[in-house]
Amino acid sequence: MQLNLTESKISLTPLLLIAPFFLWGTAMVVMKGVLPNTTPLFVAGMRLVPAGIMVLLAASFLGKPQPQSWRAWLWIGLFAIVDGMMFQGFLAEGLERTTAGLGSVTIDTQPLIVALLSCWLFREAIGKWGWLGLGLGVVGISAIGLP
């Protein structure tokens, strides 16, 4: 009996869908291992620059429209500096003072913060189940940080 891979019923789609999350989660372990040999902001930059180049290349390859003016690129650059330095910079700085696991869990509080900011800034409604979920999320993440 011969195995024919073209007729295989095994789909790689589920693996491809979860791969980014798996790879993203391993970044904290790699960053923590590299930090003793370099600075946190260098590590943060090395996360952002290749990713930014890949996004620009993918957008170009897919024929997506690119910013046409220097003003548009200036705003994109300003956002990248502020967001990149604050998000990735603070992340790498904090990773020097905590474990990779706790750093990874802490960074995953972002959806909770976004939900609260959306409620506060844009008056988006959060139902009773949403508030319960947010509360459980905060309690759970806080418990992980306890010694």
Structure write-up:
This protein has 147 residues and is mainly alpha-helical. Helix content is 74%, strand content 0%. It has 6 helices and no strands. Helix 1 crosses helix 4 and helix 2 packs across helix 3. It is globular and about 45 Å long.
Percent of sequence in beta strands: under 5%
- Give the overall shape: globular
Gyration radius, to the nearest Å?
20 Å
Class based on secondary structure composition and strand pairing: mainly alpha
Topology as a string of helices (H) and strands (E):
HHHHHH
Distance between the termini: 57 Å
Summarize model confidence as the mean pLDDT: 84
Low-confidence stretches: none
* Total count of helical runs of at least 4 residues: 6
The major pleated sheet works out as: none
Distinctive features:
single chain; 147 residues; mainly alpha
SSE topology sketch:
Layout lengths: L12 H22 L5 H22 L8 H26 L4 H8 L2 H13 L5 H18 L2
Helix pairs in contact: 1-4, 2-3
Would you kindly provide a brief summary of this structure?
The chain is globular and about 45 Å long. Helix 1 (13-34) crosses helix 4 and helix 2 packs across helix 3 (70-95). It has helices at 13-34, 40-61, 70-95, 100-107, 110-122, 128-145.
